[in-house]
Design goal:
Number of strands: 0
Transmembrane segments: 39-59
Radius of gyration: 21 Å
Keywords: Membrane, Transmembrane, Transmembrane helix
Oligomer: single chain
Shape: rod-shaped
Number of helices: 2
Order of helices and strands: HH
Length: 60
C-alpha cells in the first residue's frame, strides 16, 4: 500500500512541468491522433464483432 502523502508532491510537480511545455498545436495534434487511434481500433473491432455475431447465430 502506498501512502498518498508521499506521492502527492511529485505528481503535482510533473503536472506543473507538463502543462506549460505542451503548446496548443501539440495538444490539438495529440487529440487528433487520439481520435484517429480510436477510429482505427473501432474499424479493427468491427470485423471481429461481425464474426462473433455470425458464430452466435450459427450456434443458435
Amino acid at each position: 500500500m502506498r501512502h498518498p502523502h508521499h506521492f502527492d508532491i511529485p505528481d503535482n510537480t510533473t503536472h506543473i512541468y507538463l502543462l506549460p511545455a505542451q503548446t496548443v498545436p501539440e495538444a490539438v495534434a495529440a487529440s487528433i491522433l487520439g481520435m484517429g487511434f480510436k477510429a482505427l481500433s473501432v474499424f479493427m473491432l468491427m470485423p471481429l464483432l461481425l464474426i462473433f455475431f455470425v458464430v452466435l447465430i450459427s450456434l443458435i
